[in-house]
Structures are given as structure tokens and as C-alpha cells.
């Protein structure tokens, strides 16, 4: 039964921690009473997610826009609502198959026993979401956790308070809090959340906070999935048609004003092409946003702190002598922290934009002498969350893909691998641990329990002590069967 009123977003941190503990005990007891919900019950839960995402689409769009300063309704519809709904629909369609016990072959020397693997719910799952796609990154993991038959507690970001409140109300309108609940609060609540002995914790956010989350979870041996960030490269091969490539690079970078975990972070071009590529990306961006200063299609930077951080990155690059190409002018007609799409050509390696994840509409563009140089450049840094490769030479492509390690890849476009629900989504190394989406998400939040069914004809007791010459003969015979 759904609660008829949403819990208000709390402002008192201690109250937040108490609320967290209360809901956690409630969910633990509910799990103990019903540890393995039937497929129909899980599908009903997934339908509730679709219902609340669609019914609150306008509310989420306004809340996100107000939290950011501005964000286009269409970006929220596509990146928050459609992505969530498509994940939930795939789970509904596939759930019966995912839940089925899987056969595992039994080796000859163990016959006629049988073996199988049964997916089982883990229990109570904690989900910590960031601010950049605050609905999708709360609800998409929730879809996976509910599909796997768990209870779910969500902790959204304090940087998007209106959205967190809308999310808390939407979840409470569909779910009993013993099944799925939102816990709001600031850093103290966030820390208490990571110290809660969940059966699995999925964190989406920065690598620095991810490390702290993993340390806190380790105290309870709570397994974690860490969906982190990093510097995702674009490699433009010499076989690429640059004019075709630049439109999707401009779009991948400008979406949500670059505040996307898998946004292109820097571009490696063929030697000598860096200025042409920068000009072509700028031209493509001007086509996408003809009035970038005033258009409602272009998002604001989420906070004054992030705005100042990005502006200082650009100033540092300018002072270091990099060529700066700006599409739009900062704050031209908006008081809403709009930052121009800024291309930084040939910057020195020492500046912040080359060392830190940018997470905004600033894009360094630099040449790589050869495909090997591009591979070496990528491998010098931490393993990225995404890698984008443009070109037509399939052997050059396959060499880059086999010699670099990234969370995911899109070839001849940006971003799209995240929307393909049948592909696992996650990072590797500093960009994350584990994955979700589609079947991978179901498995992340399931215990894949191995079960060995001994046969009544088994004669394993022949190997029991007391050991005799006969035991040695049986061991020798068994060795031949291995
Ligand atoms: P963040 O790490 O600052 O915060 C993420 C969440 O953690 C928020 O809910 C925040 O309240 C909470 N938090 C902060 N400090 C905490 C602590 N000490 N203990 C527990 N919880 C704490 O990240 P952000 O600024 O919200 O998001 C931007 C980052 O997230 C970028 O690095 C981006 O690449 C990454 N990101 C990754 C993905 C992905 O799917 N891999 C998606 C979106 C964003």
C-alpha cells in the first residue's frame, strides 16, 4: 500500500540519520518476512517506477531546471524519463527469463549429480545518486534492484534539493516505504548511509567520494558498485570524416552543458588537424544552438562553485597560451550560470583541464602524431569511463579498442552505449567497479547461488577415511576422469 503523503525533505541532519535507521530496520524486517518476491510482484514494482516517472515528468523537468538554473525540458525527458522507462520495460519483458535457474554442466566424475545456479534477492539495497542526472541515476539502479527482488533505499544529492523532494514524493506515492524509500539529507546523512550495513550499495558520483564510500562500506563488508567519473577521450583517426564526426562530438559535449559522466573530456586529432577540428566543432555547436546565450536548449552549470571552477579552468588555459574558441558568451542574457561551449586548442599538459575531470562545457583538443601515440596518451591516464573512436579503418579501430581499457565505447558517435540497455554500463579502474543496466543490473543485485544436487546413486563415500589401498585406486581412477 502506498503512503498517502510524502515525507518532507528533512533539513536537520540528525533527524535524517534517525530516519535512515528507521527505514532500514523496516526494510530489513520486510525482507525477512518475504525474502524472494514472485515475478508478478516484481513486475508490479517496475510498473510503479514507469508510472511515477511518466506521471511526474513535468514536475521533474521543472524541479531539475530550477535546481540547475536552467535545463531544457527535452533533455530531462530523454535523459531522465525515457532512459528510466526503457530500462524498466526491458526488465519487465525479460524478468521471467532472468529469474530462471540456470543449468551448469556437471563434470563426468561427479555424475549423476546435477548442478544449477539460482538468482536470489540480496535483501536491502542502498543507492546514492549524484546531481547531474538526478532522476535517472536514482531510478535506473532502482529498476535493477527491484527486478532482482530487493528492497531499495535511495539517497539523492543535496545539490538538487527540489528534485530530491519531487523524487521522494513520487516514490512515496507509489511505494510502501518498506519496499522503496528516498532518504534526503546532506553530508552527515550521506556518510551515515554509507555506514549502513546494506546488502549491496551502488554509488554514482566522483572518484574521490567513491573511495570514501568504498572505505565506509568495507567496515560492514557491504559489496559496492561504484559508478564514477574520469577523463573520457575522443580519438579521431586519420580515416575519419571530420565533418561527420564533429556534430556528434559537439552534441555529446553540450548535452547538459557537459555535466555528463561520459561526456567527451578531450579530443585527440590527427597531427596538424587540431585547429580545423576545433573550428568545425564550434561551427557544429553554433548550428545546434544558434542562439546559445539565450536559447532554452542549453543548460546552466549547477552551482556557483562549479561555475567558478570551470571559468578558472578556461582562464588558466588562456594564460598558458592555448587557443580558446568560445561558442556563446558567459552570462550574456542569463543570470543562470551559462558557460559558453569552450574549445581549448593545444593546451599544455600541466593545466587543470588536462589533469582533472572537466565535467562542464570545456573541451581540450590536441594532436596525436599517430594511432599508437593516441593509445599511449590514453594509457598514461587513469582508465576512462568511456572512449569514443571515429574513423573508417577497422583495423586501426580494433587496435585502439584492444590496447586501451575503458568502461565502455561508442564508435563513430558519443554517449550512445549508455542508452543500449542490453550492454552493461560501468567503469573500470578509477572510473568504477561493477556495472548495471539490463541483465547486468539484475545480476549485480542478485546472489547467483550455486546449488549442487547430489545423486542418491553417488558413491562419494568411497573417498571417506579410513584411507586404504582401495582409496588410492579410486583416487587414481578419478584422476583419469578429470
Ligand atoms: P559527488 O561524489 O560529489 O556526490 C555524489 C553523491 O555522494 C551525492 O549524493 C552526495 O550527496 C554524496 N556524498 C558526497 N560526499 C559523501 C560522503 N562523504 N559520504 C557519502 N556520500 C557522499 O559527485 P557529484 O558532484 O554529485 O557528481 C559528479 C561526479 O559523478 C562526476 O565525477 C561524474 O563523472 C560522476 N558521475 C558518474 C556517473 C556514472 O554513471 N559513472 C554518472 C554521473 C556522474
TL;DR?
The protein is α/β, with parallel strands linked by helices.
Describe this protein's structure.
The protein folds into two domains: 13-229 and 434-447, Aldehyde Dehydrogenase, Chain A, domain 1 (3-Layer(aba) Sandwich); 233-423, Aldehyde Dehydrogenase, Chain A, domain 2 (3-Layer(aba) Sandwich). It is built from 16 helices and 16 strands. The protein has helices at 13-33, 39-55, 57-68, 73-99, 136-147, 161-174, 187-194, 207-218, 242-254, 274-288, 304-319, 352-355, 371-380, 394-403, 438-444, 469-481; strands at residues 102-103, 114-121, 124-128, 151-155, 180-182, 200-204, 224-227, 233-236, 266-270, 323-327, 341-345, 362-368, 386-390, 408-411, 432-433, 446-453. The longest helix has 27 residues, at 73-99. The termini are far apart. Residues 1-11 have low confidence and may be disordered. The protein binds nicotinamide-adenine-dinucleotide. Nicotinamide-adenine-dinucleotide binds at residues 128-132, 137, 155, 157-158, 187, 190-191, 194, 204-206, 209, 212-213, 227-229, 261, 357, 359, 385, 427, 432.
Secondary structure blueprint with pairings:
Elements: H1 13-33, H2 39-55, H3 57-68, H4 73-99, E1 102-103, E2 114-121, E3 124-128, H5 136-147, E4 151-155, H6 161-174, E5 180-182, H7 187-194, E6 200-204, H8 207-218, E7 224-227, E8 233-236, H9 242-254, E9 266-270, H10 274-288, H11 304-319, E10 323-327, E11 341-345, H12 352-355, E12 362-368, H13 371-380, E13 386-390, H14 394-403, E14 408-411, E15 432-433, H15 438-444, E16 446-453, H16 469-481
Parallel strand pairs: 3-4, 3-6, 4-5, 6-7, 8-9, 8-13, 9-12, 11-12, 13-14
Antiparallel strand pairs: 1-2, 2-16, 7-15, 10-11
The protein binds nicotinamide-adenine-dinucleotide (NAD).
Amino acid at each position: 500500500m502506498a503512503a498517502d503523503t510524502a515525507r518532507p525533505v528533512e533539513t536537520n541532519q540528525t533527524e535524517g540519520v534517525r530516519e535512515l535507521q528507521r527505514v532500514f530496520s523496516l526494510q530489513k524486517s520486510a525482507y525477512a518476512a518475504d525474502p524472494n518476491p514472485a515475478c508478478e510482484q516484481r513486475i508490479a514494482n517496475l510498473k510503479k517506477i514507469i508510472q511515477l516517472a511518466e506521471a511526474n515528468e513535468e514536475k521533474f523537468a521543472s524541479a531539475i531546471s530550477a535546481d540547475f538554473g536552467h535545463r531544457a525540458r527535452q533533455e530531462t525527458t530523454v535523459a531522465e524519463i525515457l532512459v528510466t522507462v526503457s530500462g524498466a520495460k526491458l526488465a519487465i519483458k525479460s524478468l521471467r527469463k532472468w529469474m530462471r535457474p540456470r543449468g551448469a554442466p556437471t563434470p563426468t566424475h561427479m555424475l549423476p549429480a546435477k548442478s544449477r545456479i539460482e538468482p536470489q534477492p540480496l535483501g536491502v539495497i542502498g543507492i546514492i545518486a549524484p546531481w547531474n542526472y538526478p532522476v535517472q541515476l536514482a531510478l535506473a539502479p532502482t529498476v535493477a534492484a527491484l527486478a532482482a527482488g530487493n528492497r531499495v533505499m535511495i539517497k539523492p544529492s543535496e545539490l538538487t534539493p527540489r528534485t530530491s523532494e519531487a523524487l521522494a514524493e513520487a516514490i512515496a506515492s507509489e511505494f510502501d516505504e518498506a519496499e522503496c524509500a528516498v532518504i534526503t539529507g546532506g553530508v552527515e546523512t550521506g556518510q551515515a548511509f554509507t555506514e549502513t550495513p546494506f546488502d549491496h550499495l551502488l554509488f554514482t558520483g566522483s572518484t574521490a567520494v567513491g573511495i570514501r564510500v568504498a572505505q565506509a562500506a568495507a567496515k560492514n563488508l557491504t559489496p559496492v558498485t561504484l559508478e564514477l567519473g574520469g577523463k573520457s577521450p575522443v580519438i579521431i583517426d586519420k580515416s575519419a570524416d571530420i565533418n561527420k564526426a564533429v556534430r556528434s562530438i559537439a552534441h555529446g559535449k553540450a548535452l547538459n552543458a557537459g555535466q555528463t559522466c561520459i561526456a567527451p573530456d578531450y579530443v585527440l586529432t590527427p597531427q596538424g588537424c587540431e585547429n580545423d577540428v576545433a573550428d568545425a566543432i564550434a561551427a557544429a555547436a553554433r548550428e545546434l544552438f544558434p542562439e546559445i546565450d539565450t536559447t532554452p536548449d542549453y543548460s546552466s552549470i549547477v552551482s556557483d562553485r562549479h561555475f567558478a571552477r570551470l571559468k578558472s579552468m578556461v582562464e588558466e588555459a588562456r594564460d598558458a597560451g592555448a587557443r580558446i574558441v568560445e561558442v556563446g558568451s558567459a552570462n550574456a542574457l542569463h543570470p543562470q550560470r551559462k558557460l559558453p561551449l569552450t574549445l581549448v586548442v593545444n593546451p599544455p599538459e600541466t593545466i587543470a583541464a588536462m589533469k582533472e575531470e572537466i565535467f562542464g562545457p570545456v573541451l581540450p583538443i590536441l594532436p596525436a602524431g599517430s594511432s599508437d601515440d593516441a593509445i599511449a596518451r590514453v594509457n598514461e591516464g587513469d582508465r576512462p569511463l568511456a572512449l569514443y573512436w571515429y574513423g573508417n579503418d577497422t583495423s586501426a579501430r580494433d587496435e585502439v579498442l584492444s590496447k586501451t581499457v575503458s568502461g565502455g565505447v561508442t564508435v563513430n558517435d558519443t554517449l550512445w552505449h549508455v542508452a543500449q540497455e542490453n550492454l552493461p554500463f560501468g567503469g573500470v579502474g578509477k572510473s568504477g567497479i561493477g556495472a548495471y543496466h539490463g541483465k547486468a543490473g539484475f545480476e549485480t543485485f542478485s546472489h547467483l547461488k550455486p546449488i549442487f544436487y547430489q545423486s542418491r546413486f553417488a558413491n562419494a563415500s568411497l573417498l571417506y577415511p579410513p584411507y586404504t589401498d582401495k582409496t588410492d585406486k579410486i583416487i587414481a581412477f578419478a584422476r583419469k576422469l578429470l
